[in-house]
């Protein structure tokens, strides 16, 4: 069975790569051991957003009076129905990928793929049968899984990862969330909205530590206001699951503290799926859990490539897709430029949302830039006030000398849909003055971008 391109994994890296390769005229096969769509569609990006939407609607219902509305009867939730809706959304998206595979004449091979020398792949199906296939080009897109710490082993019941967090049979009364990256805070927000008593434990001084410090502080205030307990500069030293629930010994600046809960969610990052896929036998170079590649995702062995969470760079779905498209376009002989990892947007979908791209204020200063900083609060936005979502702000950072847009950081309602303006503007090397002259519609949340830029240049109107 010979193909032009074989792709291991069908997540947002793998399946997007396969479709683009098919569009370019290649005969393509995708090897997938579980469900089409990978973690993102089945256990990550998509089903978590379904859970968060349920939380948002529930919150609206609880605060209907704030909008002049009256609900007769008690407002409550059906936790199992919320979980079921999320799984249904994920299933629908996976079926959508199946349709795309058929539409683009891509062969899907069920099983576990292992690369071999000579541009070959062994595929082991669920019954243990092995089939050998080959191609001129083999792309590894096997993704990642929840990282386990030695002192925080996951048993899938009391100490869980994100997959179990999406399908708990009953809602816990108390939950400890270890780690405050996007995964941790999104689940913390969801369960808190559903009525669970949630405590976040974060090792770093600020939650969502990759974000601009102003955003982190605002987000912490918002989460605390919603009732989430937050412990920063803290680490879980050990867990005891011998009783009914879980006891976590937490080391803080003031000493050790024991937290008790029904469930502990470990959200301390991810680990690349590079074990037992034939890298050593094939001679593909790795370093610290990552496959080494060049700017066009070629490994050190000709004909073998890698994209997504298994290579260095941001472990994000849209990054994997962009890498895969770039990879196959290079294989096809098209002119492509290396991906600009400094212009990748990051999004967190809790309430309030967080979106950012480029340098934080701290990073810009450390890089030696003389900067102009502008900030516009949503409390001064007519659209935000009318929508009942005045929390948050837009913050922009410009190079004072040349006007380069160095960074944009947002926290508030709907900002994950707004960040693309900054991404495109930075891609086009747009200056702050050009943003000011681009008329933004009123009333919208996006006006805050223009107003923040105006603030940076001392031209702000509505502050």
Automatic annotation (TrEMBL):
Occurrences of domain FAD/NAD(P)-binding (ranges): 3-324
EC assignment: 1.8.1.4
Compartment(s) where it occurs, according to its Swiss-Prot or TrEMBL record: Cytoplasm
Similarity-based family: Belongs to the class-I pyridine nucleotide-disulfide oxidoreductase family.
Organism: Paenimyroides aestuarii
Top EC class of this enzyme: oxidoreductase
UniProt remark on cofactor binding: Binds 1 FAD per subunit.
Domain Pyridine nucleotide-disulphide oxidoreductase dimerisation: 344-452
Any Pfam family matching the protein: Pyr_redox_dim
Catalytic activity of the protein: N(6)-[(R)-dihydrolipoyl]-L-lysyl-[protein] + NAD(+) = N(6)-[(R)-lipoyl]-L-lysyl-[protein] + NADH + H(+)
Molecular-function annotations in GO: dihydrolipoyl dehydrogenase (NADH) activity
SUPFAM superfamilies: FAD/NAD(P)-binding domain, FAD/NAD-linked reductases, dimerisation (C-terminal) domain
Other noteworthy facts: The active site is a redox-active disulfide bond.
Cofactors, names only: FAD
Identification of the protein by name: Dihydrolipoyl dehydrogenase
Key words, A-Z: Cytoplasm, Disulfide bond, FAD, Flavoprotein, NAD, Oxidoreductase, Redox-active center
Lineage, top ranks: Bacteria, Pseudomonadati, Bacteroidota, Flavobacteriia, Flavobacteriales
């Amino acid at each position: 069975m010979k193909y032009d391109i074989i792709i291991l994994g069908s997540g947002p890296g793998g399946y997007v790569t396969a479709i683009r390769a098919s569009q370019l005229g290649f005969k393509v096969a995708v090897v997938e051991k579980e469900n089409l769509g990978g973690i993102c569609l089945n256990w990550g990006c998509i089903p978590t957003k379904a859970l968060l939407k349920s939380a948002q609607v529930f919150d609206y219902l609880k605060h209907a009076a704030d909008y002049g509305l009256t609900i007769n009867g008690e407002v409550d939730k059906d936790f199992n129905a919320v979980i079921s809706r999320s799984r249904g959304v994920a299933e629908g998206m996976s079926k959508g990928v199946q349709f795309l595979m058929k539409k683009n004449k891509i062969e899907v091979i069920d099983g576990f793929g292992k690369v071999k020398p000579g541009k070959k792949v062994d595929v082991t199906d669920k019954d243990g049968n092995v089939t050998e296939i080959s191609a001129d080009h083999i792309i590894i897109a096997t993704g990642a899984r929840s990282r386990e710490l030695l002192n925080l082993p996951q048993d899938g019941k009391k100490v869980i990862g994100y997959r179990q967090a999406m399908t708990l049979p009953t809602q816990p009364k108390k939950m400890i969330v270890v780690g405050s990256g996007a995964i941790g805070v999104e689940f913390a927000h969801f369960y808190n909205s559903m009525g669970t008593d949630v405590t976040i434990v974060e090792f770093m001084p600020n939650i969502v530590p990759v974000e601009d410090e102003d955003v982190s502080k605002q987000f912490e205030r918002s989460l605390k206001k919603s009732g989430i307990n937050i412990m920063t500069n803290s680490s879980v030293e050990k867990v005891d699951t011998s009783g009914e629930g879980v006891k976590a010994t937490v080391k803080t600046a003031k000493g050790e503290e024991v937290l008790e809960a029904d469930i502990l969610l470990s959200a301390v990052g991810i680990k690349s799926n590079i074990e037992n896929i034939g890298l050593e036998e094939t001679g593909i170079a790795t370093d610290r859990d990552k496959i080494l590649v060049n700017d066009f995702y070629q490994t050190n062995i000709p004909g073998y490539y890698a994209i997504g969470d298994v290579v260095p760079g941001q472990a994000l779905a849209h990054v994997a897709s962009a890498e895969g498209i770039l990879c196959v376009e290079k294989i096809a002989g098209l002119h492509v430029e290396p991906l600009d990892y400094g212009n990748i947007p990051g999004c967190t979908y809790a309430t309030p949302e967080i979106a950012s791209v480029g340098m934080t204020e701290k990073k810009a200063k450390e890089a030696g830039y003389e900067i102009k900083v502008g900030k516009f609060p949503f409390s001064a936005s007519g659209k935000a006030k009318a929508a009942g979502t005045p929390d948050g702000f837009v913050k922009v950072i410009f190079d004072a000398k040349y006007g380069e847009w160095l960074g944009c950081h947002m926290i508030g309602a709907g900002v994950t849909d707004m960040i693309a303006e900054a991404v495109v503007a930075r891609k086009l090397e747009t200056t702050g003055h050009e943003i000011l002259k681009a008329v933004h519609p009123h009333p919208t949340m996006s006006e805050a971008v223009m107003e923040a830029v105006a603030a940076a240049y001392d031209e702000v109107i509505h502050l």
